[in-house]
Amino acid sequence: MARPSLSTVAELLKPITWFPPMWAFACGAVASGVPASGQWQLIAVGILLAGPMVCATSQAVNDWFDRHVDAINEPQRPIPSGRMPGRWGLYIAILWTALSLAVATALGPWGFGAAIAGLLLAWAYSAPPLRLKNNGWWGNAACGLSYEGLAWITGAAVMAGGAMPGERSLLLALLYSAAAHGIMTLNDFKSVDGDRQMGVGSLPVQLGVMRAARTACWVMVVPQLGVVALLLGWQQPLHALAVAALVLGQLKLMQAFVASPVERALKLSAFGMPLLVTGMMVAAFALRATGG
Description:
Elements (H helix, E strand, L loop, with lengths): L5 H8 L5 H13 L8 H26 L1 H7 L14 H17 L3 H19 L9 H24 L7 H20 L5 H7 L4 H5 L1 H25 L3 H23 L1 H29 L3
């Protein structure tokens, strides 16, 4: 049986997508207020689980169940191009699921439970019968919750020895999960034609390109403004000002994006997301300053 090359396997697992959940885990760890000294091994395992394991699994699962759509939208990808032969894409998705669960055992009940939740969302997003991605509202919500909220909460809980994060930390995790919904929508503009042909109800397909672009921007901005309001209420004006400045930077990019969504979605994602996740870490340090 033909086997894929290691470079093709790496391409399937998409390392570039691992950063958001790894960063969110780190944000949760910072927000916990627990000193990192003596906890570095735990943090390293958590970051490994969030990115190279669970997120990578989600990428493999998605590519396998999206192979027919990708044959239209992105035929150069590993599976439709034939570089990932036979059912290797599915085998890797199953293997990475098992490896993720094995790694998660090192993080105790909270880490293991979070890994199960993240993996269930990964399979539910792409695989029938649920295939949440067939509806952009549900699919992007699942991604946002998994990539940002779940990773943040897990980082905070693991650092606190398995204790439930405080209400403030949960609020920030929820708001950034909501903002991530908009980021996920940006990824859908490049595949409108194939999604429409294959019955994938992404927001650009459901709402039309222009309405989806405006919706994505609102969904990204409003939760961050909520974060600014919370930080002001928690007596952290400098942190609130920093997050507000980062939102203004995103708004500048959004003006160009809304004028030409399909052509500029990638640019907004590439330059807007770093501004958003920087705000996440600012908010995490603000929460740490308040004592959690």
